[in-house]
């Protein structure tokens, strides 16, 4: 009888320990939404000052365009987040800069332009915003200068 009671007590303790370990593992591996960078309302335009209420993304611009800007809303930041803005032209990197997003949410605009003010070359372009602390691939947004 004594061995049976000891066995049941050890079985209960083992079961409780296993349940606690499972809860600890799930909590530790779950993603905290405050630390997961999120982008929304992405628009690409040549001039946001004249088009303050853009409803969508314009994906083609005529040759002679001197700058193209990407505007987006972001959220879910707990602390300052360093991001890398990457611009590619015909699958070749033309610009990559790091910036820090300091507010937990907000709107940012990043622009691609040549230093001498000349028009951007014709071709296919893409832009991506990659959080430096996040290794998951972020979407690329494409546009064309024709």
What is the radius of gyration?
Answer: 25 Å
End-to-end Cα distance: 88 Å
- Structural class, from secondary structure content? alpha+beta
What would the principal axes of the Cα set say about the shape?
A: rod-shaped
Shape-level CATH architecture of the largest domain:
Sandwich
Overall pLDDT level: 82
Number of separate strands: 8
Q: Number of folding domains? A: 2
How much helical structure, as a percent, in the residues? 10-25%
CATH topology of the largest domain: Immunoglobulin-like
Strand order of the largest sheet: 2-8-7-4-5
β-strand amount: 35-45%
Largest sheet: 5 strands, mixed
Order of helices and strands: HEEEEEEEE
CATH class bucket of the largest domain = Mainly Beta
Number of helices: 1
List unreliable stretches of 5+ residues: none
Descriptive overview:
This protein has 146 residues and is an alpha+beta fold. Helix content is 19%, strand content 41%. The protein has one helix spanning 2-29, and strands at 38-45, 60-61, 67-75, 81-89, 92-101, 106-113, 123-131, 141-145. β4 (81-89) and β5 form a beta hairpin.
Defining traits:
single chain, 146 residues, alpha+beta, Immunoglobulin-like, 2 domains, five-stranded mixed sheet, three-stranded antiparallel sheet, 1 helix, 8 strands, rod-shaped
Secondary structure layout:
Layout: H1 2-29, E1 38-45, E2 60-61, E3 67-75, E4 81-89, E5 92-101, E6 106-113, E7 123-131, E8 141-145
Parallel strand pairs: 2-8
Antiparallel strand pairs: 1-3, 3-6, 4-5, 4-7, 7-8
